[in-house]
Design brief:
Pfam families: Rx_N (PF18052). By secondary structure, the chain is mainly α. Helix content is about 90%, strand content about 0%. The chain contains one helix and no strands.
């Protein structure tokens, strides 16, 4: 009887530990995904600005003699 109670207590403790680990891992993975998505979004915005600056520089080079290299 004592062994069954000990097994039950140990099983419950292990289940609590597993639940906490799974919850922690889930939160960590979500955080990593969200940070990655934010970084990709920021990179896309930066790339768009770089393209706009390059297009403007190309246009100025063809229309303004002082800008030509």
């Amino acid at each position: 009887m004592k062994e069954k109670l000990a097994d039950l207590a140990l099983s419950s403790a292990v289940q609590v530990i597993i639940d906490k680990l799974v919850n922690s891992v889930g939160k960590t993975l979500w955080s990593l995904f969200w940070d990655f998505k934010e970084n990709v979004d920021k990179l896309q915005r930066t790339w768009s600005m770089v393209e706009a600056v390059l297009e403007d520089a190309e246009e100025q080079q063809s229309t303004k003699p002082a800008v030509k290299i």
